[in-house]
Amino acid sequence: MDNRNEDGYVAMMRARAAIDELTKLLEVQEEAGANAPATPKSRLEAVANLYRVRRLRDEILGKDLFGEPTWDILLDLYAMHQQGRECSVKSVCIASAVAPTTALRWFNVLLRKGLLTRLDDPRDGRRSIVHISEKGLRAMDKVVARI
């Protein structure tokens, strides 16, 4: 398996795991009632569901009809934050579901707007670690709270 296919497979498996976790959390939230306060798990659940619906939409209707790589990047990084995980630039680009050059272009737009932060990976000088910024977290919290 070449590196690109392997990375795509890893991203797909990560998305599927998030979807599975989201589905479980949605069931718990439904049992708890709609008025339960938002928790990191319920936020993760909401975001994973949004991401799942987007991929399903692409699968059924085709990727050529829709394209919001910045939204996919924010969803992915928000979910990673909720799970306490970090993400590489390469992984973020894969999660955006567009060509790498397009993903990097939009990634840089999000950086300039202060919605993301990028740090050198202390374990591997060739990689960068990406996080959603405080500004990005506040914005995504507002969106998720209204879903």
Which stretches are low in confidence, meaning pLDDT under 50 for 5 or more residues running?
none
Strand residue percentage: 5-15%
Rg over CA atoms, rounded to whole Å, is 15 Å
Quaternary assembly:
single chain
Helix content: 55-70%
Give the total of beta strands: 3
Can you walk through the features of this model?
With 147 residues, the protein is mainly alpha-helical. It is 67% helix and 8% strand. The protein has six helices and three strands, in the order αααβααββα. Strand 2 and strand 3 form a beta hairpin. The termini are far apart. The model has no long low-confidence stretch (mean pLDDT 78).
Question: Brief overview, please?
Answer:
This protein is 67% helix and 8% strand. The protein is built from six helices and three strands; from the N terminus they run αααβααββα. Strands 1-3-2 form a three-stranded antiparallel beta sheet.
Write the layout of secondary structure elements.
Blueprint: H1 3-32, H2 40-61, H3 69-82, E1 87-88, H4 89-95, H5 100-112, E2 116-120, E3 128-132, H6 134-145
Antiparallel strand pairs: 1-3, 2-3
